[in-house]
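**Fold in tokens:**
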Amino acid sequence: MSHIPIALTVASNDPTGGSGVIADIKTFHKFDVFGMAAITNLTAQNSQGIHEILEIPPEFLEGQLSSIFSDAIPYAMKSGMIPSADMVDIIKKYIKGYDIPFVMDPFIFSKEGKRIITEEVQHKLATALLPFASVVTPNVQETEAITGIEINTESDIKSAANVFLKEIGVKSVLINDSQLTGEACDYLYTRTKEVKLTGPIIKSKNLRGVGSTFSAVITAELAKGQDLEQSFRKAKMFVTKAIESGIDIGKGNGPISHFIDL
């Protein structure tokens, strides 16, 4: 194959491969896209949680991105955990400088609900980076943190989406919820349309990498030239199957599977 789309992830490293850039790269390759990665931080984590985080110096993130973009410009990129305001500014420079889709997975809390980045960095993400995102993919907890809206109903989700679109300036937002309706619901809001996809809630403890994989599928599909709604539908289908086939690895919560086919 002489020509293949390239997708870039800018996120953290999970040494056990359940989430972060390793999950992203698995996803990119599963969707026939060449994956590249710039690391924002190293983590000591496993199926039982995140134990330590070592932040990469911002100038080294700059070096990684410079090496990538000066040699082969990605067709699309996504971000995961961004631990510092300085890193936000560096990533913003590359997003503004290149006309490629940018998918933002605003990793604010751990799977257990523990805050991972500071409120200062969260504010910087919302004001400096989110307005340049093609789509942002928060869960309900992240949506509440960014918008300040407590979500108890589907109407609250729509109100929060309007904050993203009209106040923050995001082009589109994809909000995930599995609590309000008794179904696994994903809501896509753009400035011209709304799309809701539903599915059964799959009871599983093996859910590591759900957010990373969901946003990585969208990034891969955008890199191939697909539109956002098509990318969203494919991400929903793939992640649902990946949860159904979750893998028992480790003593705690295992990862979803990237070995499945659509």
About this structure: The mean pLDDT is 96. The beta strands are 6-13, 34-46, 49-55, 76-79, 102-104, 135-136, 172-177, 184-190, 194-199. Residues 228-244 form the longest helix (17 residues). The CA atoms of residues 153 and 180 lie 6 Å apart.
